[in-house]
Structures are given as C-alpha cells and as structure tokens.
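Before drawing any conclusions, I needed to go through one protein's amino acid sequence and its backbone structure tokens, quoted below without any editing.
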Amino acid sequence: MNLNNSTRLLIIAAHPDDEVLGCGGTILKAKEVGATVAVLFLGEGISARFSADEYDSQEFKDQTKKRTEESYNALKILGVDQFHFGDKLCTQFDKYPLLDLVKEIEVYMSNFNPTILLTHNESEVNIDHKITYNAVEVACRPTRDFIPNEIYSFEIICSGSFKFNPTFNPNVFIDIEEYWDQKMQAWHCYQSEGRDFPFPRSDQGLKILAGYRSLASGLNISEAFRLERMIISNQ
C-alpha cells in the first residue's frame, strides 16, 4: 500500500467507529504523508439497540445525535475532513436492495476518484459488514475510470472475533506503532462502544489484536489488511 501525497484514500465503512477500528492508524499514517482521505459511512450504528417502534423516540434521536458527534470528534483526531453519513439501519442492511448500496458507493467514488480503497472483509458476524463488502465488490468492477487500482479489506475486532470459522487472512501489514496513541484517542471518542476486557472492543483487546497481527509481520504494532485487487498498468 503506497501512501504518499498523491494518494486519494477512500474508506467505505458500515458504521461510525469502523473507520477507527479497521484502519485508524493507517489513516493517520496517510494523512502525515499528505494523502487526501475520505470516509463514506453507509449506515448509522445505533438502531440495533432499539425496537422498531422506538425509532421515533427521543432516546433514539439523542443516541443517534451522540454517535454522530462522537464520530465528528474521532474524525477530527484522525485528520479527516471529507466524510458522509449514510442512514441505513444498523444490522439491517439486508433489508435494502444491494443495488441501492452499490449506486451510493459508485456516486461517491465518481466524485472522489480514489486511488486506494479500504473496506470490510466478508468474514464477519455483523451482516452490515458482509453486505458492505459485497456492495463494494460490485461497485468496483474495473469498467470505469474512477475505480481505484488498489482495494484492500480490513478487520473489525469483535465482529471478526466471534466467527465460528474465521477466514480473514491478511497479507498486508501497516506499521502503526507511531500512531497507536492517536488511534486510541480517536477510539475513546466512541464512549458507548468500548467495554471491559475480555470483551474484544476493549483497550486491551485492541492492543492484543495489533500485537497478534505483528507476529506475522515482525512489527511491534500493526493493522492488517487483505489485498483484494491491484491493477498495475502502463499508464
């Protein structure tokens, strides 16, 4: 993953907080070398905690507002000032036609023109993560000029941790030791998402995963990705 001042890095995430968990350190690394970074959130991350008849409640509105504010704060720490919040209901992406998600992704890509794209992998218990991967796969058919030449998938701790048979096999590792404290600072903006260890989405859980991925890379602290497709042309 070649990050430089010509890089246009697009992260397509299902929910606010996935950008920090999956690639927060890599975003910080990209920003430091002058890359342009944007994040497209396809859905919100609150509705799974409410019943459908509570969506009009004040509590739901307050929690949604809080999650958005947390995301603004996290993105500020990451240095990201280009982003879009979608409104798909959390863990209910299967209720929407896949084509709707594909079109939303295509429109954003055509406007941003990414050179590198990061998104979810398909081996997650969270259905929104899997469907996001599927939608990106369809949207990134290499038939148009705005499709990036490098596409990678990332992992989300907790959703990936709870698979019966995990199949995410990363082959790209990014050294984020220098950015770890900032990544954790951004993560702490999502106050309602962290829990105590041994829950995966704990400070210790995140550090364990970063260390575990380093066993395969020889790094001290790393984020892991899988290269889904790379196109090398003569142009």
In short: The domain at 8-230 is CATH 3.40.50.10320 (Rossmann fold). The radius of gyration is 17 Å.
